[in-house]
Amino acid sequence: KAGVTQTPRYLIKTRGQQVTLSCSPISGHRSVSWYQQTPGQGLQFLFEYFSETQRNKGNFPGRFSGRQFSNSRSEMNVSTLELGDSALYLCASLGTPQETQYFGPGTRLLVL
Amino acid sequence: AQTVTQSQPEMSVQEAETVTLSCTYDTSENNYYLFWYKQPPSRQMILVIRQEAYKQQNATENRFSVNFQKAAKSFSLKISDSQLGDTAMYFCAFTSQGGKLIFGQGTELSVKP
Predict the structure, then answer these.
(1) Per the CB < 8 Å rule, is B44 touching A99?
(2) Is residue A3 exposed (0-12), middle (13-18) or buried (19+ Cβ within 10 Å)?
(3) CA-based Rg of chain B, rounded to a whole angstrom?
(4) What CA–CA distance (Å, rounded) separates B34 from B13?
(5) What are A52-98's pLDDT values in tens digits?
(6) What distance in Å separates the CA atoms of residue A37 and residue A90, rounded to the nearest whole number?
């Protein structure tokens, strides 16, 4: 089976812009979770989507949003980018063994 | 609130030796899962080992094993016969809600030749 894929792998944006990141889970996996990784805050949970519904949400401002499509692919959007949004954004899909998440390679976002 | 703590920011070990990484967690849940993930310089997060809280037997995966002490809320990772390819950041993680992992701050492990 192909692993979790994320596009794009790298992005450079300027403050105030918005960005959309995409994640395709492992075939058959219906849950997709998103994480932000920064040197200062470490790995933080953003949200989880399961069957096109947000099932869990982390403590991030409303500028961070997501959605999931019927084929389980997920997108996350960050509006009005700030310098502090520069991070590695990781996506993971949930599969077997039970409650095990498998990660994609990440998208590195740099906000200038 | 559920938290995960890794008290060793950095560790080093000689090739072929054994090293143990520490992790403690705090939760009021009874059913949960614990994981160790490895993140090499490529930044790809790789699952190393998992442990179900309801299982008393410690998990093992080849050279990797855990010491799970549920009452003490401790979950350490032992790497035997360390290899240069084990050099990476190691994260301990907890979940009681499948799709939401709570991570520790990580331990940067260097394996020296």
Answers:
(1) no
(2) middle
(3) 13
(4) 24
(5) 999 999 999 999 999 999 999 999 999 999 999 999 999 999 986 67
(6) 7
